[in-house]
Amino acid sequence: MMLWLWVAALMVLAVGFIFIPLFVKFKSESIKREENNISIYKNQLAELETDKEANRINEEDYQSQSLEIQRNLLNDTQQENSVTENRANGRWMMPILAIVMVLGSFWIYQEVGAENEVAISDLLKRSYQGDFNKEDGEQLLSRLQIQSQKTPKDVENWYLLGRLNFDMGNYDQAVLGFSGVLTNLPQDAKQDQAVAMAQMAQAQFFANDRNLDKATQSMLHQVLEINPQETTSLGLLGVAAFDSKDFVNAIRYWQRLLALMPANNPNAVAIQGGIEKARSQLSASDAKILNDEISQQSLSATSIVVTVDLDESIKSKVPKDADLFVLAKAKSGPPMPLAVKRLNVKKWPVSVTLDDSMAMMESLKLSNFKEVIITARISKSGVGNAKSGDIEGDSGVLVISPEKSPLKLNINISRILP
Questions:
Q1: Contact 142, 170 (CB under 8 A)
Q2: pLDDT at residue 326 in the model
C-alpha cells in the first residue's frame, strides 16, 4: 500500500511540473503583447504630433490619423482578449489530461512493473507466519504463474511453483514447476540439478498414485551419482525396490538413508520398520546374500570410533539442539564421503562409530582406502555440505587398516567456517 501512495505522490508532482508552467506562460504572454501594443500606439502618436508641429500635416489630417491609430489599438486589444479567452477555454482539458496521465501510468506499472513481485514477496513473508491460509496459497500460486510468464528464466520462481503445487496436492503441476527449474539451471549446477530432480521425481511418484516408473527411477539414480547422500532419492528407490519385491535392495537403500538420519528423527522409526518388514519377506537365498555381505564386511571391516567434544571458545555459539555430522573422506580420491553419521546432540561429548556399512557405494568403503580425514561439523543449515557459519574440527590425515580396527580418536570442534 505504501508503494502506491509514493507513486501517486510522485505523479502529482510530475503533473504539477508539466501544467503549472503552461498556465503561467499563457498569462505572461498575454500581458507582454498588451504592453507591446500600447508602446507602438504611443510611438505612432508621438510621430504624428511631430509631423503636425513641423507643418508636414494639417489639423484635419492630424485628427483623422490620430483616430485611425486609436481604432487599431482597440482592434488589437479585442483580438488579443479573444485569443486569450480561447486559450483559457481550452484549459478545462488539462485536469482531464492529468487524470488520464496518472491512470495510464498506474496501468503501465500494473502491467510491466514490479507490483506482482511485491505481492509475491508479501505473501511469502506471510507464509512463514501462522495466518497463511488456503486462499493465500491460491493467490500466491496464481501470482507465481503470472510471474513465470513475465520472467520465464527465473529458477527460484519455478522452484516455488513446484514446491507450492506439491504442498497443495497439485502433483502434475508440481512436476511442471520442477521441470522449469531443470530447464533453466546452468549446466554446471550439478548439486542444484540433483535437488530439482529429486523433488520432481517425488512429485511424479505421487502423481502416479505412489508408483515409480522406469524413467523416474532412472532420474533418481542420476541424483545419487551426483549426491550419494540425497535422502529423498534413497527413500523413493527403497520404496520402488520393495514394491517390485526386490527386498535386498530395499534394505540396502533404507539402511543408507537411516545412517543419514538423526536417531530422534520421527521418520527413522518408520524407515526401521520398513527394513524389518523387508527382512521378513526375504527368501532364504536373499537372506544368505545379505548375511554374506555382513560377514564380508566383518572380515575386512574398518571401523573408527570418534568422540566429539566442543572447544571452550565456541561453546556459547553452539545451539542447545545441534545437528552434528561426522564424516570420513579419502585424503586423495572422490569428494563424496566414505561414511557419514548424523546426530542431534544436546549433551557433549558424544561418540559415534564409522564403518563400511555406511558406504554410499560398494567402491567407496572405508576399508578401500588407506588414508582418510574425519570431520565433525555442526551444521546451521541442517545439511552435511560445509557452509559459512558452520562449526567444525577434523582429525587430520589418518592411516587406517582392518588390523588397527577399531581405531579410536578424539575431535575437538573449534573452527567457525568463514
A1: no
A2: 93
Query: What tens digit of pLDDT does each residue of 17-48 get?
Result: 444 444 444 444 555 555 666 666 666 667 76
- Choose among 92, 151, 90, 153: nearest CA to 120: 151
Query: What SS3 state is found at 164?
Result: helix
User: Of how many residues is the chain composed?
Assistant: 418
* Cα dihedral 159/163/166/171 (nearest 10): 0
| Amino acid, res. 258 | L
Lay out the sheet containing 371-379: strands in order across. Answer: 339-345, 322-330, 371-379, 391-399, 415-416
Residue 92: φ, ψ to 5°: -60, -25
Distance CA(106)–CA(101), nearest Å, equals: 9
What is the DSSP-derived secondary structure letter of residue 405? P
pTM: 0.56
Cα 349 from chain centre? 38
DSSP assignments along 280-310, one per residue: HT--HHHHHHHHHHHHHHHHS---EEEEEEE
- Cβ pair 205, 240 in contact under 8 A: no
Nearest to 159 by CA among 178, 173, 172, 141: 178
| Separation CA 247–CA 259 (nearest Å) | 18
Return d(Cα 58, Cα 67) in angstroms, integer. Answer: 14
Q: What b-and-e string marks burial along 34-52, b requiring 16 or more CB atoms within 10 Å of the CB?
A: eeebeeebeebeeebeeeb
Residue 351: all three cell numbers together: 561418540
* Predicted local distance difference test score (pLDDT) of residue 142: 83
CA gap 418, 415 in Å, rounded: 9
Q: Quick one: pLDDT band at residue 96, thresholds 50, 70, 90?
A: low
Query: Dihedral of the CA atoms 242, 247, 251, 252 (nearest 10)?
Result: -100
Rounded CA separation 367/332 (Å): 14
- Listing from the earlier edge strand, what are the strands of the sheet with 304-310? 350-354, 304-310, 407-413
What is the CB-side half-sphere exposure of residue 336 using CA atoms within 13 A?
A: 16
| Residue 301: strand, helix, or coil | coil
Backbone phi and psi for residue 89, each to the nearest 5 degrees, phi listed first: -65, -25
Beta bridge partners of 339: 328
Interatomic CA distance for residues 418 and 408, integer angstroms? 29
Does 95 sit behind a cis peptide bond, omega within 30 degrees of 0 on the bond before it?
no
> pLDDT class for 87, splitting at 50, 70, 90?
very low
Residue type, 269: V
> In the prediction, which pLDDT does 289 show?
86
pLDDT at 394 over 80: yes
